[in-house]
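pinging the channel bc i need a second pair of eyes. not urgent but kinda urgent?? the chain im working w is below, pasted from the shared doc
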Amino acid sequence: MKIGYARVSTHDQNLNLQIDALKQEGCDKIFKEKASGVKAERKELSKLLENVRDGDVVVIWKLDRLGRSLRNLVELVSQLMDKGVGLKSLNDPIDTSTSQGRLIFNIFASLAEFERDVIRERTMAGLKAARARGRVGGRPPGLSKDAETTAIAAESLYKSGEMSVNEICNKLKISKPTLYKYLKCRGLNISSKWANKGEDDCF
């Protein structure tokens, strides 16, 4: 059975284009969602994952309709494949019900693993550099443990110079003001209108 999944980010957007394409593809059932891709909980997607069975194929308009990030996409597709369910994207070269599609997915999975390793390595390098400067531990007042981890990753990515501010924000799922706050808390002097806002103070 072909099962469709259509999603738009806001209630103002229209699902018709995706739904029409999924119907034309022959989907017997379509799960429709109006929710931001960054939301951890998507009720219709959860229902879909509960309802699919061995031999089914989930059909989507584009890959970004399904996953919040490359890592999240790989996790979702892995869940489907463990159930014997394929994934077909109408506008990407992905169809895990075919050997070629599975090969491409495995490349995606390798890229996701590489991405995790790079962030982990830069985080560790940031901690090592901080210790070398005499900052042996602890976190700035006002930052939680999770926020401090993100701040360390932000510092490493920012210092590498390989990514733009927007790319770093998208990668870490944070806003620009939050990025500048974290960089400020890590001791970097950032020349930006955001860096001087009171809401971004570490204390």
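so The beta strands are 2-8, 29-34, 57-60, 86-89. and The two ends are 56 Å apart (CA to CA). — does that match what u expected or am i reading it wrong
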